[in-house]
Amino acid sequence: MVEIAKKKILIIDDEEELANSLDIRLKACGYEVNIANSGSVGLQKFKEVIPDLILLDVMMPDMDGIETLKRIREIDEKVPVIILTAYGTMKTALEAFSMNVVDHIAKPFDTKLLVEKIDSILKNK
Q1: I need a labelling partner for 48 at 20 to 30 A (CA). Which of 35, 37, 39, 95 fits?
Q2: With respect to CATH, is domain 8-124 assigned 3.40.50.620?
Q3: pTM surpassing 0.85?
């Protein structure tokens, strides 16, 4: 029997409680999950893990999500990225979409809806 590889999701978010909650939920749905608590750590994990999808917070202390996204796009233009933010502005959203993000979700969000979006994106990948 051939084992199907689990899809890999990288969560880059400095909110530890949120990241851990998503980790539990996504693993229960059959995904392999990696967490980075900053943009710079996220960039390093991105290179190591090569995820199928990234959940990326905008507001982080060392390197914000937009800068992290720019650096990710220099390496991979196509990996699906969903931006998560509690402080979404139209400027931030437009900047993110100009870098080919697949969605922009405001915190707090419904985890069930987020999982449905992830499922849909990864089924179509």
Answers
A1: 95
A2: no
A3: yes
